[in-house]
Amino acid sequence: MSMLEGDVTFSFPARLDLLVAGGDLIDPATARWGRYDVGVVDGRVVVVAKEVPRHLAAQVVDARGCLVLPGLVDLHTHIFDGATYWGVGPAPLAWRTGVTSWVDAGSAGAYNMKALWRSCAGMAPLRAKAFLNISAIGLVAQTGECTRDELCAADLCAATLSEHAGFLVGVKCRVDRAATGGMGLEPLRRAVRAAATAEVPVMVHIGAGPPDIDDVLDMLRPGDIVTHCMTGQGMSLLAPTGRPRPSAVSARERGVLFDVGHGSGSFAFSVAEAMLASGFPPDFISSDSHQFSVAGPCFDLPTCMAKFLALGMDLDDVVRAVTVSPALAIGATGAGSLDVGDPADLAIFEVAEGDFVLFDSTLASRRADRLLVNRATLVAGALLGPLAAEPPAPWVQLTDAQRALFEREEAELREPWAASFTSAECFTPWG
Questions:
Q1: Of the residues 65, 83, 112, which one is the last residue of a structural domain?
Q2: Rg of the Cα trace of the chain?
């Protein structure tokens, strides 16, 4: 069947498996913004048009009054559930947040990578890829993984990357005084060496130094990624002048990329405001979802998006930073886009307007006039069903307000968790 729209004729099967109808599409990958219907056959997008006859679809998802986005791509998460200090299961988050592509940021190293690979395979239909930790033991403990020389073997890391090319998309290295200790910058040197051999990027975590942030940035290559780029800790990208450090500006100019990685201790509103005011927005917005951050004040990726909207970023730029930009950075073909032929991964959001209080990792607050409320998440054209939130690990200390989140009834789970918190006293302080 064909249909004329303007000067373009659309051809698609006479019968659609599913039609997402009436929503306001935002797809930076295809430069589509506005009222579109999205038709699906066999798990893939077959038509994106202003209006598709409803009778052609076996199932219609009514998206009127909602934003329709490509399935979100969360570039920094920890989803090696049950095997590390940080790991959290993605499925109870995915169905109510719109995140369809999950990227684990170094939970596993060469010694335990196959277990992560098997775990991710079991997450289907969700899509998962991973950065391999330069430390062979990964993040089995809270920190300290790079403090021993024999654990940071560049050749072993490179060989593991080669063996699992496609699933492994880069090398992760946490660089701060606790993670590397007396090893200083040596783990990062080895991470860069392994990544160069495998022709993949490095993702480097920054936090409380030493090492010196300028030395870290100077080691990075085009395509490498700095995560926690808006941290308020000692390795901040802000100079004492309140503007981005010259080393950060130089790194961006040569193609180094910058990721938020909110987490539980790595995002400060004051730093984000100064960076944005200086024309230094993040390339990627990610949640750093893990056992501690999912109980707030991070909560999830849509809450991170709302924080940047509150700070003045354009909606199109925010959507780009959680869809096509991270997908391109890791070579995830078809992710973060709703072009014809792409997997039919979609996130449908209602924009809730009001007066909300959002908190950063230091428990500083800012007002927000809108939150993104997920109303449906589809992977390969199939709606994800509700799944109760999993209680945190025994070592996670929560306030009563945080613990109540995991006792919500199913009907309440989709409502933004951040909207329940109006005081810093509701959170367990981090660090």
A1: 65
A2: 21
Answering whether pTM is above 0.85, one says yes
pLDDT digits (tens, 9 = 90+) for 9-57: 456 667 999 999 999 999 999 999 999 999 999 999 999 999 999 999 9
Q: Which residues pair with 170 in a beta bridge?
A: 131
Residue 177 · residue 209 · CB < 8 Å: yes
Q: Is-contact 126 100, C-beta < 8 A?
A: yes
Over residues 234-262, the pLDDT tens digits come to: 999 999 999 999 999 999 999 999 999 99
Q: Are 79 and 36 in contact (CB under 8 A)?
A: no
Q: Which amino acid is at 79?
A: I
Does position 429 have pLDDT exceeding 90, yes or no?
A: no
pLDDT, the chain, mean: 96
Domain that holds residue 36: 2-65
Residues 6+ apart with CB under 8 A from 118: none
Domain for residue 211, yes or no? yes
- Among 329, 358, 374, give the residue marking a domain's end: 329
Residue 185 and residue 254 in one domain? yes
